[in-house]
Amino acid sequence: MTVWVAIGLTAVGCYLVKLLGLAVPAGVLERPVLRRLAVLLPVALLAALTAVQTFGTEHGSLALDARAGGLAAAGVALLLRAPFLVVIAAAVAVTAVLRVLGG
Amino acid sequence: MNASAIPAPDEAPEAPPSANPAAPATGVTSPPETAPPDDRKVVRDSLGVGVAVGLSGFAFGVTASGAGLSVAQTCALSLLVFTGASQFALVGALAAGGNPLTAAAGAFFLGVRNAFYGLRLGQLLRVPWRVRPLAAHWIIDETAAVALAQDNRRAARLGFTVTGAAVYLLWNLTTLLGALGAGALGDPRAWGLDAAGPAVFLALLGPMLRTSAERATAVLAVLLAMALLPVLPAGLPVLLAALAAPTVLLLDGLRSRSKEARRGGRGTRRTGDGRRTGEERRTGEGER
């Protein structure tokens, strides 16, 4: 049930923020500070999400496991300008192989 | 970056290079008789973006399923939220045991930039009042990128509509396939699928790291999230790490202000220098 609550809140929030841009008169959101914040906010969130989901555990502690190897592979694929799906596949494959090797 | 490398509906906002050559920077309008080939090109570019993005819906379906969401919940997200990074963030936060409010807040903040696309698209497309509630749902990185790359309203409207339709259809279809396929796989961890989520975030983040301010924000956010993870409930470390953005913005503002003050004090010969850096900064922003 809580999952549906989260889905509903996210859907409504994300939709309203899209509609807001279309509906407000030009100039209201055009302040340079707000525009720069809109660029940097996703950067901060994506960086934090990457770190938390790579090194975080279910018990709220930090761990270095197969996922870190997978992420390193994804990073290399990104540097080689691989397509999006190849980047994800590299992370998944390397993580799976490391798990098998680690027993 | 080529169109095939464009991932989920939250990739960096620039247009794929294939969408650019037809839009001369000089603003030269095409003669009327060349309009149909132009239309075909807009449609072709839009469909290319749609296919590439749609495919990554499969990764979302698998990830959401691995995080414990039902097929219905996974599909509801793609149908109703329809902005990739927010969907991945919500699913990840729920999987980590975060409460629904903090999970939704993180997803919401990732979606805030769509408001800025909407603002620019509103001026460009002049969307009629009745269509606005529908058009708003399709405002994502890719539709904004394709529409804003066109040099006239007609082409921009066509690009927005075709890209929106293609991405929406394929993103939802592949989400369903991914969710169903993941169920047949069994334990997603054994297949390394728990690495798909963070890899998606990294792939979305990579192209955004162009300026030193962006890199500083990313590093600070990682440090904040890692430091807070062991001491705060799930979901909160990511939300608080978002404070890296205003922090870097503030420090950047203070630094450039003190630099300008120093330049101003040295006399009029330096003002030309200061103006040039100002222009460079503006051009850099325009690229995004």
3D architecture notes:
The complex is a heterodimer of chains A (103) and B (288). Chain A has helices at 2-23, 32-55, 66-79, 84-101. Chain A is an all-alpha fold. The longest helix of chain A is centred in the middle third of the chain and has 24 residues, at 32-55. Helices cover 69% and strands 0% of the residues of chain B. Chain B has two domains: 3-208, no CATH class; 212-288. Chain B is mainly α and 288 residues long. Chain B starts with 34 loop residues before the first helix and ends with a helix.
Number of helices of chain B: 13
Helices and strands of chain B, in order, run as HHHHHHHHHHHHH
What is the count of distinct domains of chain B?
A: 2
Distance between the termini of chain A: 36 Å
Number of strands of chain B: 0
Which spans of chain B have pLDDT < 50 for at least 5 consecutive residues? 1-33, 267-288
**Percent of sequence in beta strands of chain B:** under 5%
Mean pLDDT across the residues of chain A is 89
Uncertain regions spanning at least 5 consecutive residues of chain A: none
What's the Cα radius of gyration of chain A? 19 Å
Rg on CA atoms of chain B, Å:
21 Å
Give the percentage of residues in beta strands of chain A: under 5%
Oligomer: heterodimer
SS-based structural class of chain A? mainly alpha
Transmembrane segments (chain A): 6-25, 37-56, 76-101
Keywords (chain A): Membrane, Transmembrane, Transmembrane helix
InterPro entries (chain A): Brnchd-chn_aa_trnsp_AzlD
Protein name (chain A): AzlD domain-containing protein
Salient structural properties:
heterodimer, A: 103 residues, mainly alpha, 4 helices, extended, B: 288 residues, 2 domains, 13 helices, 69% helix, disordered N terminus, membrane (chain B), Brnchd-chn_aa_trnsp_permease (chain B)
